[in-house]
Structures are given as structure tokens and as C-alpha cells.
Amino acid sequence: QFFKRAAERFIMMMAMNAQRRVAHPGQWICVENTTDDGLVVINRGTAQVCKNDIEFCILEPGDEFGGTVAVGMHKSYTYSLKAKTMCHIVLVARGEILGGLQRYPGMRSWLEERKVEEDREHKELNQMLRDRASK
């Protein structure tokens, strides 16, 4: 969903410069409160989003994690991501996204839309956390 409505040539640039990794079941991919600058895209497998060891949701192929970090809204992950099954993941660094914006300046409005969407999704997850904690 992160690259929804992004120009195809911009996505191609991100894909060519992305890192690829494998995460084994039970391996932490991202840990809450750790500083990073990357967007994680699940290419294959499943991973769980959690905070304080409470699972919120399962990410499947095509889902992404760390959008607020990737667009510079947060310097660290506010949730953790743990591989449930063997995962092939694609990592896109913030620098690659910003470099793509320099090359394709028309994508700046797309980035602003992403910031609004990422903020909304982040608030929804925080509300889910509060709801679960109150039960």
C-alpha cells in the first residue's frame, strides 16, 4: 500500500536500489524504539506487528511496515516486526525515497499524501493498543 499511486518509474527506481533479506521464523525484523530509516515490504511469508509482546496484526506479502520512519515522521520504530514464517523482505531506505523525489519532483505530492495516510494508520494502531490495554 505504501507505493499505491506512486509513478511506475519511481517504484522501479526504489526496487532497483532496495536491499533484500531473509528472516527466519521468530527472528525480529524491526524492534520498537530502535532508530532506523527504512521501509520493510513483505515479499514472501508472514510477520507479526507487536508492541510490548502484544500481537496486533499479521503482515502478508505486499504489506509494508515502517512507513512513518521511511517518510521521516519518526526516527525510530514505534512497533516491532517479527517473522512468523520464513520471510523474504525488501528494505527501502529513506535516502532512496528522498533521492527518488529529487529525480522525480512530481512525486512530492505523493509523499505528502503518504505522510497523512501513515499518520492515520499510526493513530489507529495506537488506539488499538489503548483498547487492548484497557481490557
Report on this structure.
With 135 residues, the protein is α+β, with helices and mostly antiparallel strands. The chain is 37% helix and 29% strand. The chain has 4 helices and 8 strands, in the order αββββββαββαα. It has helices at residues 8-17, 67-70, 94-103, 108-133, and strands at 19-23, 28-30, 38-44, 47-51, 54-59, 64-65, 80-83, 87-93. Strand 4 (47-51) and strand 5 form a beta hairpin. Helix 1 crosses helix 3.
Features:
8 strands, 4 helices, alpha+beta, 135 residues, four-stranded antiparallel β-sheet, single chain, globular
Query: What is the share of helical residues?
Result: 25-40%
Briefly note the structural class of the backbone.
alpha+beta
Sheet of most strands? 4 strands, antiparallel
Q: Could you say which overall geometry the principal axes of the C-alpha atoms support?
A: globular
Biggest sheet strand order reads 1-8-3-6
The span between the termini is: 31 Å
Order of helices and strands: HEEEEEEHEEHH
- The tally of beta strands, per DSSP, is 8
Tally of DSSP helical segments: 4
- The gyration radius over C-alpha positions equals 15 Å
Q: Uncertain segments of ≥5 residues (pLDDT<50)?
A: none
Mean pLDDT: 87
